[in-house]
Amino acid sequence: MEGYRLFRKDRQWRQGGGVAFYVNDQLECMELHLGMDEEPTESFWVRIKGRAGTGDIIAGVCYRPPDQGDRVDEALYRQVGAASRSQALVLIGDFNHPDICWRDNAAERKQSRKFLECVDDNFLLQVIEEPTRRGAMLDLVLTNKEGLVGDVKLKGSLGCSDHKMVEFRILRAARRAHSKLTTLDFRRADFGPFRDLLGRVPWDKALEGRGAQESWLVFKGHLLQAQERCIPTKRKSSKTTKRPPWMNKDLLGKVKRKKEAYRGWKQGQVAWEE
User: Fold this and answer.
1) Is 153 exposed, middle or buried (0-12, 13-18, 19+ CB in 10 A)?
2) What would the DSSP string read from start to end of 98-132?
3) Which InterPro entries is this protein grouped with (predicted)?
4) What does the alpha-carbon distance between residue 195 and residue 249 come to, in Å, rounded to a whole number?
5) What residues does 47 pair with on adjacent strands?
6) pLDDT digits (tens, 9 = 90+) for 102-132
7) Whole-angstrom distance, CA of residue 189 vs CA of residue 230
């Protein structure tokens, strides 16, 4: 394709098949070699250099055959673990786990449950919400950063494929000088009246005979009304527009240490007590 650089990994044991990337010539990129001494996997990894004001992105593409063995699966999971340590990862492909229910984070087959463990251990988010082939969700988009992938759309098939095409955007715009977003200003909140407003609600009567979802909506309505009256808002600064208002520097450091400790425990390098 003119104007694009092709990266490819052909299937070695039969004609046809494999995975490929086309990267726009205007983007500086390089191939990454993850687990080259491992079992052969149908996966390919590329580092795309970020433009001014943004970091690099690790992009991976994968095809997992339905009959792939446990050893090759484990090799793939080690590659995913290595790639997920980057600041920004986008992994796409056909993983052939039709029995996974992403809404409940559950699966019937052992191999599918192992894949879910890999996703959870590496703190990945799966953003596809609709079936991509004959009612099954086989094709996935995984990322390690909330808000990195957006505008996900399923379109018609390409050529003779019976899979739907997946289109999405990687949202890596340069930092904005000003933000129009607002957030709750908890430092100026008046929690006395806030507690008083919620304390006046006759909860037993308000929730009587209601199910879990309906009860939640009733509670949420009262909570938001009290919030609107007692907690003022403020303009978000550009440095914190991507973070919740309660996520300060100290919490960020603790979350990072938690992830490192959990990953070390899963790999047998850190004792549970530590």
Assistant:
1) exposed
2) TT-BTTTTB-SSHHHHHHHHHHHHTT-EE---S-S
3) Endo/exonu/phosph_ase_sf, Endo/exonuclease/phosphatase
4) 28
5) 30, 58
6) 888 888 889 999 999 999 888 899 989 888 8
7) 6
